[in-house]
Amino acid sequence: METTETFRGLESRASGRVYETADPADLPDDVGRVDPIYDYDAVDPDDLFSASTGIPAGHWRFDALLPFPASTGLSGSEGETPLVPTERLADELGVASVYVKDEGRNPTGTVLDRGLSVALTAVAAVADDRDVEPLACASPGNAGQSMAAYAGRADLRSYAFVPSRCAFSNKAMTNVHGGDMRVVGGRYPDAAAAVDDQLETEYTDLNEFATPYRHEGIKTVAFELVADLGGAPDVVVVPTGSGEVLAGVYKGFSELARIDAIGSVPRLVATQASGCAPIAAAVERGLDEPEPWSTPDTICGELEIPDPAGGRAAVEAVERSGGTAVTADDADVLESAVAVAQNEVIEMGVAGGAAPAGAWELAEEDYFEGDETVVLLNTDAGLKTPDVLRSHLMGQGI
Fold first, then answer.
1. Is residue 173 part of a domain?
2. Structurally, how many domains does the chain consist of?
3. Burial class (CB in 10 A: 0-12, 13-18, 19+), 340
4. 12 found inside a domain
5. Core-most of 160, 165, 166, 168, by most CB within 10 Å?
6. Reduced to 3 states, what is the DSSP secondary structure of residue 2?
7. How far, in Å, CA of 342 to CA of 372, rounded?
8. What are phi and psi of 111, to 5 degrees?
9. pLDDT in tens, 35-82
10. Could you tell me if residue 36 is inside a domain?
11. What are the DSSP calls for 244-272, one per residue?
12. What does the alpha-carbon distance between residue 248 and residue 236 come to, in Å, rounded to a whole number?
């Protein structure tokens, strides 16, 4: 498995021990969560932000702080997504500027493509040496579709376990990409439980934080924001379900601060649907990690994660960045996604609508001082959930 010159290994979050391997299969069974770690003293910020000749477009241009070199990256040109200025939103929020980082432009329409690209690169690198099939993950929808796409590129068999309420677009495109899919009655926890119940074989687990590489790929969102803005924004609002995206964005900014590419980490805001908000509740109560949400109930399927695997990491990201967490009702999330589409061109998915909804909640709470540069992360494309957005309009008689 070829790694970059700066990659040192996988660090245990519990013990701090660094294992000099890039292959999670080499780790002890009880190691817990691990993170890729690098020789940060060897990373020149100028080199990080200037892609060399031959580096493919997309997030692999930042391979100085990725585990694998761009030349080996399994890629569909994910990353390099637009950063769209929205003057009307800036006026409404009472801040200096607002940008939407439109992750709906990734290959399968989700920010998760960044992470699955890196995770599948790791799996494909060892596929000739040992049996890694099948690949499997439980997903509200987007991760399963993304896994199928990158697994197809690597010619590997994958199984996505999704709840019955998963968006039809995810179900359809998972199969179109060549992935197998199991639809499980109930909600996301039922789909997660079904992986071990229904797969009667060993499998490669590609769930968030089961692989150390999904949030590792997502951290490149932070790299691109700094590259595009010429520095760090003041506030980044992140729709949050499993905690994977928030943890990845925080790690990206933290690494940039560590190599002196930015002065400090921006305030990160976790925004959740009020019908399933374990991370926001933990932040409000001062807990180190969330307690499971007993009665999840939100139309925002990607955000309906009652017991998030990255809950502790998400709470840590909020607290260490000096940020906060907010919630928004489903009606406000849907209305926010529609408002952005009608006024700013950008098509947001239902989950993405939580970002402007959360920002408006912050403005009502007088969170902003007025001189901030604010980034709203649109985590998925509007075409993921057009029926839900259209139903919201129909409910208004439109």
1. no
2. 1
3. buried
4. no
5. 160
6. coil
7. 24
8. -60, -25
9. 999 999 999 999 898 865 556 679 999 999 999 999 999 999 999 999
10. no
11. HHHHHHHHHHHHHHHTTSSSSPPEEEEEE
12. 13
